[in-house]
Design goal:
Organism: Lacihabitans lacunae
Number of strands: 17
CATH superfamily of the largest domain: Ribokinase
Catalytic activity: (6R)-NADPHX = (6S)-NADPHX; (6S)-NADPHX + ADP = AMP + phosphate + NADPH + H(+); (6S)-NADHX + ADP = AMP + phosphate + NADH + H(+); (6R)-NADHX = (6S)-NADHX
Bound molecules: ligand LP7C6HRI, potassium ion
Low-confidence stretches: none
Cofactor: K(+); Mg(2+)
Subunit structure: Homotetramer.
CATH class of the largest domain: Alpha Beta
Largest sheet: 10 strands, mixed
Radius of gyration: 26 Å
Number of domains: 2
Oligomer: single chain
Strand order of the largest sheet: 8-17-16-15-14-13-12-9-10-11
Helix content: 25-40%
CATH architecture of the largest domain: 3-Layer(aba) Sandwich
CATH topology of the largest domain: UDP-N-acetylmuramoyl-L-alanine:D-glutamate ligase
Shape: elongated
Keywords: ATP-binding, Isomerase, Lyase, Metal-binding, Multifunctional enzyme, NAD, NADP, Nucleotide-binding, Potassium
Mean pLDDT: 96
Number of helices: 17
């Protein structure tokens, strides 16, 4: 799914009105009705609802929502912060009056206790930080004990730019129209957005296809698993090579190898330090162990012909950062066309020696978490929008795919596209979770997925398995092995 900016959403809005001959107030009605549909699935009509409206179209949505909830039997009360009223706001205020729904203009909001507040102050029309009555109202909402549901976007949050240090409504749920906003993908905004719901309102599909954006949100419909050949065998489902583990870190090699096998790969060879084979072999009988001549780390020397025998290679989980020489030889001899996934300590080694970046092969995926990304680029960022620019810049400059792990893992491609992932949960912030992801991506690459597909689909399926694990156990109690067990 594409992520549109506010200018594009306005365009889509205007185009849909023209193309479908639908009045803008009817589009607002459609938005309000999908909002109410989702809202009423979460909250029952016994809960009291206070709707706080601005006077633009977000406020207009709020008035229409008030009327529709009233018709469904909810007790609603509307507060309006006086301002310039949009045309569709005026029509909806008239409709509110016709149904005799109680409302008042507020100069200073004294919030009577209510179960739920619906935030309809500002939507994507916000163009400056909130001040005065708006700021005070937002503070009152955030201090209340009520659950808060934002219409389209928590008021005060800029959809397409950083809102650091602004006054913003802290929503429990955000029900956003048609497409998520870029701001929702930023970890710094997690505290404002709460649980995100996307509500399609039927904007023109043709125009959506035409509009260009760098930003995408991966949903189930974007996932296309490779068909498994009925006559295939372990020789045709790909042979992966994983370079992983060191003394005390063999768990990383075990988790990544097992995840790789579960991803459907035909065979995996795992290259490990000498004398550690027992640990791996006992943990996973299906793995082929290849021991390094080094007792404590991976091999010093690598040759292209040997590496070329594998369909894909992964390096990093648990390898430590001592063997720079071996890592350099590995990259210098890496075959041009073999897909490669680089994770964990291999990323730290690259960060320590950025001159190696030029030796990265063309089909490479890097999977850093934010700390590893910082080491890799040797630079700090002021906010998450800046971090996103750095991520995009790195992918473009080095011609690589880079997946910045976290909630809504961001995958930047050399084309400048960024795909945000929609699956996963806080339970995945657990030791070994990243090793599992490396194994899955490696397995996908070895089976013949393109680097783009392996990155996007690997991250999506890793998150999905994590969501299943959290349902069976809990976000708190799940561990990385549960992600593997729930990969189906
Ligand atoms: N295409 C769609 O997705 C649809 C969106 N709808 C809803 O409309 C809003 C956007 O409405 P808009 O009237 O453009 O803007 P706002 O209501 O967000 O803001 C109103 C107005 O306020 C002024 N303003 C901006 N910042 C400030 C500030 N800090 N202090 C004071 N005043 C401010 C500015 O002039 C704005 O224009 C969208 O989010 C949806 O909720 C439709 O209902 C359906 C189609
Ligand atoms: K809002």
């Amino acid at each position: 799914m594409k992520i549109f900016n506010s200018e594009q959403l306005r365009l889509l809005d205007a185009y849909t009105i023209k193309e479908k001959g639908i009045a803008s107030v009817d589009l607002m009605e459609r938005a309000a009705s999908v909002f109410v549909e989702i809202f009423s699935e979460i909250f029952g009509a016994e809960e009291s609802v206070r709707i706080i409206c601005g006077t633009g179209n977000n406020g207009g949505d709020g008035l229409a929502v008030a009327r529709l909830l009233h018709q469904k039997g909810y007790t609603v009360f509307v507060d309006i912060i006086n301002g310039n009223e949009s045309a569709d706001f005026k029509i909806n205020l008239e409709r509110l009056n016709q149904q005799q729904i109680p409302w008042q203009y507020v100069a200073e909001l004294k919030l009577a206790p209510t179960d739920i507040i619906i935030d309809a102050i500002f939507g994507f029309g916000i163009n400056r930080p909130t001040t005065g009555i708006y700021q005070k109202t937002i503070a009152a909402i955030n201090e209340s004990k009520s659950k808060v549901v934002a219409i389209d976007i928590p008021s005060g949050l800029f959809p397409d730019a950083s809102s650091e240090n602004h006054s913003i409504v802290k929503a429990t749920h955000t029900i956003s129209f048609e497409s998520p906003k870029l701001a929702f993908m930023m970890p710094e905004n997690d505290k404002w957005v709460g649980k995100l719901h996307i509500a399609p309102i039927g904007l023109s599909e043709q125009k959506k296809a035409e509009l260009k954006t760098d930003y995408h949100y991966t949903l189930k419909a974007d996932i296309k698993p490779l068909a498994r050949e009925q006559f295939g065998h372990k020789g045709t489902f790909g042979h992966a090579l994983l370079i992983a583990g060191s003394k005390g870190m063999m768990g990383a090699a075990v988790l990544a190898s097992k995840a790789c096998l579960r991803s459907g790969v035909g065979k995996i060879t795992t290259h490990i330090p000498r004398d550690t084979a027992q640990i791996l072999q006992i943990s996973i009988p299906e793995v082929i162990c290849q021991e390094s001549e080094n007792k404590s780390c991976f091999s010093e020397s690598w040759n292209t012909d040997t590496l070329q025998k594998y369909d894909a290679v992964g390096i990093g989980p648990g390898i430590g950062t001592k063997n720079m020489n071996g890592f350099e030889n590995f990259l210098l001899n890496f075959p041009t066309n073999t897909p490669l996934v680089i994770d964990a300590d291999a990323i730290n080694l690259l960060g320590e020696n950025p001159s190696l970046l030029k030796y990265l092969p063309r089909n490479v995926i890097l999977t850093p978490h934010p700390k590893e990304f910082k080491t890799l680029i040797g630079q700090l960022w002021e906010n998450d929008f800046e971090k996103l620019e750095l991520l995009k810049g790195f992918a473009i400059k080095n011609g690589v795919i880079i997946c910045l792990k976290g909630h809504y893992t961001a995958m930047a491609l050399p084309s400048g596209e960024v795909h945000f992932n929609s699956t996963g949960n806080s339970g995945m912030g657990t030791a070994g979770s990243g090793d599992v992801l490396t194994g899955i991506i490696l397995g996908f690459l070895a089976q013949g997925y393109s680097v783009k597909e392996a990155a996007i689909q690997g991250v999506y399926e890793h998150g999905l398995a994590g969501d299943r694990a959290a349902t069976k156990r809990s976000e708190r109690a799940m561990i990385a092995s549960d992600i593997i067990e729930n990969f189906i």
